[in-house]
Amino acid sequence: MGKEKTHINLVVIGHVDAGKSTTTGHLIYKLGGIDARTIAKFESDAKEMGKSSFKYAWVLDKLKAERERGITIDIALWKFSTAKFEYTVIDAPGHRDFIKNMITGTSQADVALLVIDGNNFEAGIAEGGSTKEHALLAYTLGVKQLAVGINKMDDVKDKDGGPWAQGRYNEVVDYLGPELMKIGFKKKDKGDKKKGDKKEKKDKKDKGDKKDKKKKVRPRRP
Ligand SMILES: Nc1nc2c(ncn2[C@@H]2O[C@H](COP(=O)(O)OP(=O)(O)OP(=O)(O)O)[C@@H](O)[C@H]2O)c(=O)[nH]1
Ligand SMILES: [Mg+2]
Are 57 and 25 in contact (CB under 8 A)? Predict the structure, then answer.
């Protein structure tokens, strides 16, 4: 019998319009959870509403009001699996009016993905913005592992003509990293680091021992 995979509840959080539903819907599509024909149908239906850019978001935004307004109102759940894990992804709303639903989703989560609009990062951290508030809520609700996805980088013009602006990426990382640490998130799981360090040291020691032993071997006299 195959080994059972570990189950993980992953909540997707962040400021309104950051691209949480789109990123999650796209991920589900890439993993084969939804077929191209359904996405094409979403695209044509969304186009009729003047919202064609929401085709992936519609994988999760199923309510009529959500589709009309182009925002997530309630959490939506979807399951997918990878080689090691079974995931339930929870797409949370970013709009302030629906913060209760975001809390409901986050309270069920083991880990979180904080999505940032790389182009309009400032809106999320301005007064009334949800970026830091969502991170704090996640931490308070027991989510201690958080990944950050800097989205919409295709919208940020790179002055050297590259596909995305490294400078902008660094700016977001440099600001957000310390802010997340102030909340309580750690850069790396200390336990893992120690384990790795020990192993590394042991490997080095073993190699060193071998070298030393080699050095000590002297040719016998005839
Ligand atoms: N250019 C660009 N647009 C994106 C990207 N991701 C999402 N969008 C657009 O951003 C808009 C909002 O996307 P959503 O996925 O609904 O954003 P959201 O974070 O789920 O919004 P709420 O759930 O209402 O908080 C849509 O028009 C998307 O097409 C991206 O990577 N690049
Ligand atoms: Mg959404």
Answer: yes
